[in-house]
Amino acid sequence: MKKILKFTSFSLRDLFVTVGPLVILIAAACYFAYKLINPFPPSQVVFSTGQDSSAYAEFGKKYAQELGKFGITTTLKSSQGSAENLRLLNDEDSDIDIAFVQSGSTQHADAERSGLISIGSLFYEPVWLFYRENAQLKNLTQLKKMKVNVGTDGSGVPKLFNAILEANDIDINSVKTSKLADTPATVELLAGRIDALVFSSAPDGLLIQMLLRTPGIKLFDFSQAEAYSRRFPYLSHVVLPRGIVDFSRDMPVKNYHLIAPTATLVAREGLHPALVDLIAQAAVSIHGGAGWFNKKGEFPNGSYTEIPVAPQAEKFYRDGAPLLQRYFPFWVANFVERMWIVIVALGALIIPLSRILPPLYVWKVRSRVYRWYGQLRSVEQAIEDVPPEKRAELFPAQLTRLTEIEEKVNQISIPLSFADELYRLRSNINLVRKRILWLSGVKAA
């Protein structure tokens, strides 16, 4: 009889059988946790800005550039302005994810019911009331009977300007208003076909910059700006400093007091938290410097908005970038931050498993040897359970069965570190054979 003993240095099969189910279970748990937490933001975002040549449009391009550094494609869509942006965000059929919205455009309770969040206030966008020099506008009551463009309904300026007129006891119907877009309204003002126009925009707007330098066009000085800020919580008193437009030409020639809502970034509350982090970082990069109306570091912030600020953005503005993002790339830091609960849970699971798995592996390998002891014992039992006078009939069959067991044992593949277990089994098989032969009266070889 040919005997073949198979030895290996390590049993991959036993290791897989022992560890495999646990690994599959852990992998499945990680997969479902990944799907549930969804740590990575979407690769595309749709941004509603404002009218062409407006500050919103210019800043939208900067956000697209900043988000593009992280592989996120930003689709910019123009709009009439703040009011239309707010309407689009509230429209379930709209594909807009985030937009510029002027403070004062909605109420806190309405924003919560609509499921909107703010990613922070970005900059002041003063009310710019430009008028023709010959209008000699010193007081808002002089606007009666004047031709004034108040912007399109979608811009949010008409609502704001109406509130200003109402505060001055001016009937809106006493003012000849038009609602042209910013560019055609500027053309009409320069052509003398209207007397004044109203913008609410950051000074970065191209039309604002042009009108501030245009001879014959004057800027209205809101001398009661501080009072407006007390009456309307969403308005701030800001000052356009003397010479800020052009130092060499001393433009403007004096400080101008203006009233200013703030521009905020508003999104649907379902916006991915990691994307909120990225946009907040972009906001700091774009708006964090000094401006005409603010000092460095004043913006962005979580103030001046009636819309609830996203917790991630509020924490970012308060504490700065998370610790991991200061030392690791955003994608790595974001994954760890979003998945830390899973990582901690895995650590708590793996530590005890690391103590349990080695004994399980040893048991699995030894079980391939030990299971034959049951069959070996059954051969002995078959002889011992019958009267001595009837054993002779069973000897040939049990010897044959014992030989079959031995042949199968010789085919077992087992690590060398467990070779003593296999040799012990073979010795016990031989002992049982000798016992059977002794009982049968045949002398063992």
TrEMBL record:
InterPro entries: TRAP_TAXI (IPR011852). The chain crosses the membrane at residues 12-34, 339-363. Keywords: Membrane, Transmembrane, Transmembrane helix. It holds the Pfam family NMT1_3. This is TRAP-type uncharacterized transport system substrate-binding protein.
